[in-house]
Amino acid sequence: SVLTSHEGQGLLPMTTGLVNRYKSAGVPPPHMLYVDRDCCSSMGTSRAGAMFVGWDDLVVRLDVCHFVRRFAAGLHTVSHPLYGLFMAKLSACIFEWDEGDVALLREAKRRELEQRQDVTGLTDELLMSKLNPKQLAQHCRRRTRGAEVTEQLITETLEAFKDAKETMGIPLVDQERMSAVWETQRRHLPCIQDPPGVQMYTQTGSLSKGGVTLPVYRCARGSTSLESFHNHLNRFIPGVQRTGWGSGV
């Protein structure tokens, strides 16, 4: 299970109630807590995690989308033509695709093109160009690269975009501000890594493409599960539901 958190001691009664409801129902507590801030502290204890008293094994992680968006503070404007490419490169510094999943999807696309359009001889690179992000997210799993690798890759990406400009000569990066952002965010790299032993994906079904059976996955991490959490809150928290409970928090 994955829970989300928002800052503020005003949530303490709610978190205490959640702990009690899980305990009363005899249901194991969630494995992870995704937050948009307060993911760690100099003392090694997350303020958000400390609010769930009794859930000693709860792992607190910073939502990757919120982490990446923090780098926007080091840009001149988010409307810059290179903004999307820059954010995509940052995401690639953090995640890597499961090679087996991607190979299976490529093979399915190859067979589909052969059967429907009589297209043959495509290289893996060309096949990848014909896959859209939605297909990759639906059929392929990702994992975090590790803090050290991500630190190196982000450093290289920031260096590559340091002098990037659009056609009118407007730079993307404010180097002074970006240096400050990176100096602050560097310490959060361990906070965005997938914890060992926690299953981040659930197979929800399968479909056939080009005669190849592809699994369909749902990911527990990411902005979708984080931001839409309130829509599902009462459905999976054990115990008696109370009308208006959510709006009263």
From TrEMBL:
PANTHER family linked: SI:CH211-243P7.3-RELATED (PTHR24401)
Protein name: Uncharacterized protein
Biological classification of the source: Eukaryota, Metazoa, Chordata, Craniata, Vertebrata
